[in-house]
Specification:
By secondary structure, the chain is mainly alpha-helical. The longest helix is centred in the last third of the chain and has 21 residues. It is extended, with a radius of gyration of 20 Å. The chain starts with a helix and ends with a helix.
């Protein structure tokens, strides 16, 4: 029985979704490969492809001109196979470590809120993690909580909004996290 290119692409997409979920569950590459009856290298390539599909290219600005469509972010369109070809491991440069998260309905809704102002999903997540990490460090350093307990935040304090001054350089540090 022969398969069509569409069936092959669907099988790869399904396998990659399973790989992402199993990796998020904490399984090693070997454990995933065993579970899916494939090789560790195939799992590695799938994770690389997933990382490439969801990353903002380095030549793209972190802030887009319009808020992203969250469904486009959450469910990227299929990429032609020629665009996802992975060079041999001997010549490939190793990608930066990446975090893979399952896109639950709650996470997608929260990400939509954070990207409403036009910031990229990657920058929004980096900014959110930095804010929470700073709050945790302050609570631990002040001795409010022991270092092995996550602090509970009860309220937020916002600085008053001040519109940007025309002609002044924009402060992009907060947008890029």
């Amino acid at each position: 029985m022969t398969t069509t290119a569409t069936e092959d692409a669907d099988a790869i997409e399904t396998r990659r979704a399973t790989v992402a979920q199993l990796r998020a569950d904490g399984l090693s590459l070997r454990e995933i490969a065993t579970k899916l009856s494939t090789t560790k290298d195939t799992v590695h390539r799938d994770l690389q492809a997933l990382s490439r599909d969801t990353a903002t290219p380095c030549d793209q600005p972190c802030r887009s001109t319009a808020p992203p469509d969250i469904l486009t972010v959450a469910l990227p369109t299929a990429t032609p196979e020629s665009d996802t070809a992975t060079p041999s491991r001997d010549t490939a440069t190793h990608p930066a470590p990446a975090v893979t998260l399952p896109l639950t309905a709650r996470f997608v809704a929260d990400l939509a809120t954070l990207t409403r102002n036009g910031i990229s999903p990657e920058a929004a997540v980096r900014h959110a993690v930095a804010l929470v990490a700073q709050a945790y460090r302050q609570a631990w350093e002040a001795g409010t909580y022991p270092r092995d307990v996550n602090p509970v935040m009860k309220r937020y304090e916002f600085a008053p909004y001040t519109p940007p001054v025309p002609g002044a350089p924009a402060n992009t540090a907060t947008a890029q996290g």
